[in-house]
Amino acid sequence: MSVRLFFATDVHGSEACWRKFINSGKHYDADVLILGGDMTGKAVVPIMDNGGGKYTFHMQDIRHDLDGADALALNQRAIRDHGYYPVVMTPEQRNEFTSDPDKLDELFDQQMRRTVEEWIAWADERLAGADMRCIVCPGNDDRTDIDELLASSSQIEVGEGNVLDLPEGYQLASSGWTNLTPWDTPREEDEPALKARIEGIVAQATVSPERLVLGLHAPPFDTQLDVAPKIDWESLTVQGQNVAHVGSTAVREVIEQVQPILSLHGHIHESRAAVRIGRTLAVNPGSSYVEGTLSGCVIELDGKKKLKRYRLTMG
Amino acid sequence: MATNAAPPEQTLFVRKASGLVKAWAGGDGFRYSFFSVNVFLAIWSFAYATFIPGGSLFWAIVITVPFIVLEIVVYAALISAMPRAGGDYVWMTRIFNSPVGFVLAAAGWWFILWQWLPIYADMGVQTTVKPILRIVGADGGADWLGTNHGIFVAALVVIIISSVLVAVGMKAYAKFQKWAIWIGLIGVVVAGILLLVTSGASYKQKYNDAANKYYGDRGTLDLTKYETDAAGVFKYDDAGALIPMMGADGKTPEQYASAYDATAAVGKGTGQPSSAFSGGLSWATWTLIPFMLFWMAWPNWGATLYGEVRGAKDFRKNIYQMLGGLLVPTVIALGFLGLMAWRMGYQTFMGTMSAFWWGVSPFGGDYISPTAMISWIVPNQAFQIVLIAAISLLLFGWYGTVFLSSTRMIFAAAFDRILPESAAKVTSGGVPVIALVLMIIPSIICSALYAYTPIDAGTGVTWFKLFTYDATLVILVMFLGSGLAFMVMPWRAKVIWDSTPIPKWKIGPIPVLSIIAAGFSAFLIFSLWLFLKDAVYGVNNGKSLIFMGALYVLAIAIWVIAYFVRKRQGMALETVAKEIPVE
Questions:
Q1: ipTM
Q2: Mapped to the 3 state alphabet, what secondary structure does B277-322 carry?
Q3: What integer is the mean pLDDT of B346-364?
Q4: What is the CATH number of the domain that holds A178?
Q5: B489 located within any domain
Q6: Are residues A125 and A99 in the same domain?
């Protein structure tokens, strides 16, 4: 029996993309859904409460003036679909968040946790009774407390640091940790430490390489999966048209050594591609979360030793 | 966890997270658009425009600009909404469906670019290589380049250069482009200054000196006078050939006194107007628009190459860059037109433009290269070569990228499994081997057709070369598909539309941007109607229509085969473009 996986990654707080991910099993007739990390959003949009049911907010430099609760709800959803957290606040509260980084940090924490809880509840309801598995592994942009929230789900299995059994005797070894980035994100470390971490996880696997799937958020170094605009680490400024390979050497080395049948990656949104590294198919479906489109990959394993076929998707 | 403190009046709070960058090099998008709306293509199209002498070239350019601005707005919005490799293919497949998107985009981004290779090669040879060979006295080489074999080999060279550039990566080429644009523009400024500081009489003298030196002394200058009517327009015999004006002996044709006089006679003889404004906003001027689209329609050429973190989602920035890419070359082209008209007289200048395509070039049949004839102002061969070569960088800096967009489209279709996985195969060195092969082999075939198909009696060029404007038409059809797709995007791709940062202004229930897209689409339909209505554009003849039809049939065949193959594999091709339900 073959096994069909649907893999997506880097939804970054986009509610539309999360919902699409949960609904993708039916859409693509998948047996297992795998989310490869970076669930949480990067930004909070302050919606100014002007009183009298009137609100104002800015999205990508465009000012939006709202009148009434319906308009507010509609725009809050649009902001969430975009991957941002809409928070209604007064100008005084906004000034507090502006001047107090700790308070702002608390706000982010609160928004991320609340959103993940809501997402889990929605997923639990949707996936209940469905004949499919759903595995979520946080990524480098996700704070570590997300894992325990995910673990509370009745339908979602947590990938981070685990080797999970898949149908037909396959196993999935996952980690959302990456090599160092210019942004000092929650789950990143230098290459030796990352390699030790991944090797430790892979060592838990009990199947042969042709039945092993790796789910590693960082793409392997020097492939078509890890090409990103070159960034100055100090100023965080893109350096013109220059691009660089920003993937992980540790990830590449582990793939080269272990040679799993499949290796799933994310992290670099613009490097949507699939490449062969020896016998391993390495895939990064990229991410288009900002537009509410779910970039993904449908992979069919033949139930024996071969990867039958795969297809990058945008749905 | 520390977060980035936001400045006062902050409208967005961000935390430390991957991919959040502060800026990008805005010049890159402009440079790409500037190269695409190429000054060389402009001047090349001016020569075609001589076939509609009743129209005003100046006004044709001016009235085309606002329509291209509509295109810029539509594409800026599409890029902003979906900055995806594959551009038009991705947009049309997602907003319409897989077959429509694939067929239009495969024809427009992939197949028709096969035809651009020999066109680019021909332009490079005629405007730059041949004039330089004439200057250095390598007439044998220059003449050979004008032969079938020469044209074919030149096209092969361009194919090789383009392939190597894709193979070795664009990084080095991008650097070359930065230099090319500046050196080319310096050349343009020098050319402008030369025209400004040279008197009409002096220019005429220098023109004749160069003509005598590079052609006359070598016996290739043709100053034959031809019979004209009372208005000075050439007469033709029953076979469509010019009638030499015989001298007193009845055997020897009369001669013009100089190359300049011969060129002026060509301008008059081919019916060129005395002013760029002649014709005003008449119908003839509107019929020049298809010729203008040959060079003005491409500020959106980089649409497939934008990426998320480079700021591609910034609608306004996209507009500014493409607008700059349209307006700067337009101003240069108009400035060139004005200076040449001021220095030579508009009719004589248009004589230099019409001479080659009308088969009456006094310069041994050569195309009278605008950059060469400006360089002749300075009677120094080294200077002439440097100036011609410098300005040519505006062409050579661009056409190395001709395969780039095609490979992106092929990749996107391969990811969607319309093409086999192998079509997106990239070697360990990053070479998209199969995609390149899918471009190279058909390009060689098209180059052979361009060089070796029989000569069309009416125009003196091969019949494949005659429908050069197919290369514009098929791409415009694809643009029309994208224009219509964007027009209906608010309804057909509501989730994406709602999440885009583009302005959502409305007139009644209709988004303003949809109205702009409708305007752009209507303009394209009008232009396509002109293309297909009148034989002057060379596209509505039987062979041309068969060629274009074959491209669409090929695209349809690929999609249909893919559909059944994938169906047999249990992979529904239609889900490629189908949106996953949100609720």
A1: 0.86
A2: CCCCCCHHHHCCHHHHHHHHCCCCHHHHHCCHHHCCCCHHHHHHHH
A3: 92
A4: 3.60.21.10
A5: yes
A6: no
